[in-house]
Design brief:
about 25% strand, globular, alpha+beta, 18 strands, D-tyrosyl-trna(Tyr) Deacylase, Chain: A, Beta-lactamase, about 475 residues, five-stranded antiparallel sheet, 12 helices
């Protein structure tokens, strides 16, 4: 998630961006005729897919091994590829290894003199309005009914609120929301666009009226006749406070919800906390954002779910904000050098941790925790080494549980259904423009457990076509038997 101030959210109805990390309806993998193949036949079977004329210009990277490192298939596995969300495998593995499966992120409220409260955020990505209400209830139970000044202490996460190399359309979409010391409701808010009489602009309904005061609206949309095509653009100008709405919605269409990333996470947190305090009858005077200060008497606190649960949210749903928060959490027990960002320190810890897992440090280069940056480069070899290392780690079961299950959960829910891979493949997906990746474990019924990584780069083919090819190869892997 890039917290930067670049802005042009582009949402086109009927055409989702490839980087959206939500579960998408996908064409089911064709069900092959049940069969088994010997290990010696695996290469020829996978090459049939790779060498199709459709993929003449495609760059493939594949590695299939057992858990002990014996190679069954290798195609440019040591080369670097754009990995998309397979990057999250590195981030979650390092977080579980470094911090442990039971680690939790704490958000604290400290009491200072003269009715001043200081909230110290530490990058918990799971906070919602409900958790803020819990904080407010704790304060009320302590007899606090009036706060003269509320400070959001932004000391924990230092650096850009979005990764500088994220693309503009990403940082303007909810899947590219800003991250930092404070996160509420995944740092996004929703508006609904509703049709009016034909010829009239669309009506804008704010789910959170507080956000309406932050934006200037340039509404160039129009309501058109019944059953006409829906075509909407929602864009932000570079300063971040002008929301431009363009396009059309049919008069008989249902209202359309658009979820947008917030501009400033710290002040968004303060606005949402003010609402929670008011709901408990606590009055609030001024608010401010500061870095550093006295934090001695903790009067209220909330904690995130465990690191195991945060890793599951990161991988199963391919949540970018969670991934960036976990990357920053890697710096929690370290000392930053002067001028060093929290994420840069997190990347240092990640690399050290993966080297301890026997991952070749020259086999990857990453700049974020989510895989949204096109500057990330990872080899299939590195991804397989991460999976093999984590299979032998104390948190092996937690790491495996964080991955989507073929045909069952998360970003694999609608893939592999009705195939031999359903339920026995657990793997991390990845998709950005021109990139499809899948890396994970296979519990083969007639062979030993396998670890695999498939990455497709540099192609104009639709992601749907690439996924079908990748899935076909993975199904083939499940059919191995001892010969």
């Amino acid at each position: 998630m890039s917290k930067g101030v670049r802005t042009i959210l582009l949402l086109l109805l009927g055409a989702q961006l490839n980087t959206v990390p939500v579960v998408q309806a996908q064409t089911p993998t064709p069900t092959p005729t049940p069969r088994t193949i010997c290990p010696a036949q695996l290469a020829s079977n996978l090459d049939v897919v790779v060498n199709r004329p459709l993929f003449n210009r495609v760059r493939w990277g594949l590695l299939v091994q057992n858990l002990n490192g014996q190679t069954l298939y290798n195609r440019d596995a040591n080369k670097l590829f754009t990995p998309a969300s397979n990057t999250k495998l590195l981030t979650t593995a390092a977080a579980l290894q470094q911090l442990g499966a039971n680690f939790r992120i704490r958000t604290s409220v400290y009491q200072e003199a003269n009715g001043v409260l200081r909230v110290v955020g530490r990058g918990d990505p799971s906070i919602t309005d409900a958790q803020l209400t819990a904080l407010a209830k704790q304060l009320k139970a302590k007899g606090i009914t009036k706060i003269n000044k509320l400070i959001a202490d932004d000391s924990y996460v230092q650096g850009d609120v979005v990764v500088p190399s994220w693309q503009w359309e990403d940082v303007q979409s909810d899947y590219g929301a800003a991250f930092g010391s404070f996160v509420v409701n995944e740092n996004a808010f929703t508006i609904r666009l509703a049709p009016q009489a034909v010829g009239r602009p669309l009506q804008i309904n704010w789910i959170d009226p507080n956000e309406a005061r932050i934006w200037r609206i340039l509404n160039q949309s129009v309501t058109v006749a019944n059953n006409q095509e829906t075509n909407l653009n929602v864009t932000r100008d570079l300063s971040g406070n002008v929301l431009k709405i363009q396009g059309q919605l049919a008069a008989n269409a249902n209202p359309f919800a658009v979820t947008l990333p917030v501009v400033d996470p710290n002040f968004f947190f303060l606005r949402r906390f003010r609402v929670a305090l008011a709901s408990e009858g606590i009055t609030l005077g001024e608010t401010a954002v500061e870095v550093g200060g006295a934090s001695q008497l903790e009067v209220a606190a909330i904690q995130s779910p465990t690191m195991g649960e945060l890793a599951a949210k990161t991988n199963v749903d391919s949540n970018n904000l969670y991934a960036e928060s976990l990357l920053n959490a890697l710096a929690v027990r370290q000392t930053r050098k002067p001028g060093q960002t929290t994420s840069a320190l997190g990347l240092e810890v990640l690399k050290t941790t993966l080297t301890q897992l026997r991952v070749n440090p020259t086999s990857y280069f990453i700049v974020d925790g989510s895989g949204l940056s096109r500057k990330n480069l990872i080899s299939p070899e590195a991804l397989v080494q991460v999976l093999q290392g984590m299979a032998k780690a104390p948190t092996a079961s937690v790491f495996r549980a964080s991955l989507p299950i073929a045909g069952r959960t998360g970003t694999l829910k609608n893939r592999f259904r009705g195939t031999p891979a359903e339920g026995i493949v657990i793997a991390k997906t990845g998709t950005v423009g021109g990139v499809v990746s899948l890396s994970g474990y296979i519990t083969t019924p007639n062979y030993e457990p396998l670890v695999f990584s498939v990455i497709v780069n540099q192609t104009e083919q639709p992601a749907r076509v690439l996924r079908q090819a990748v899935d076909e190869m993975v199904v083939t892997m499940t059919q191995l038997r001892r010969c």
